[in-house]
Amino acid sequence: MLLEDYTEGIVLTGNVYIDETYYNEKALNRTLRNGKELRGISKNKYCIAMDFDRENVYAFLEGMAKPTRERTRDAFKDHIARGSHLIHDREKSHKVLAEELELSEERYDAREIEKLPEKKNPLAPINRQCFMLKDLLNAHPGFNRKDLQGVLNLFCFMQNPPHDKLEKVEMLLRAIVYSQKTLKYRDAWK
Global pTM? Predict the structure, then answer.
C-alpha cells in the first residue's frame, strides 16, 4: 500500500533499455482450448513492460499476451524522457515510443543476439532486470495475481536508488509515519 504510487515519478533518461517479460497466469485460471493450454505468448501470460537506464528500473503490468502499440504507449509515455536513446529488440510496439517521444534508437534482432554470450549481448542490462524480476516472482508463486502491479512496484523500489539498505528502511519508515492512508484490520485479512 505504501508503494502504490512509487513508480509514478520514475522517468528514465539517456540510454534506455526496454523489453517485455511474461509471467504465467495461475494454473486454475488458464484458458484451455480442446482441453489443452494455449501455447506461446497467449492470454495465459501477463505481459510486464520494463525499462532500465542503468540507474533506475521501471516495471508496469501491460496486460495479457503480446503488447500493442497503445498499451506500450500508455505504459512508457510518462516514464522515458523526450530525446533519450532507446535500445530494444525489434518488437513492433516499441516504434510508437520512438516516434512520439522523439527518441533515437538501436534495434537488435532478438534471434541473432540470443546466440551471443551474455557479455556481448547489447540487451544484457535489461535481460538481467527481467531475470531478477522473474526470480522474485518465482520465489513467491502463490501471490494473488491481482496484486501483480504492487509486486512490480516493490521490485522497482528494491532495485532503484538509494542502494544503501538502511536508507531504504528509513524511506519506508518515513512513508509509514507520514502516510495519510489507512488500512483496516478487516481489509488486511480479507
Answer: 0.88
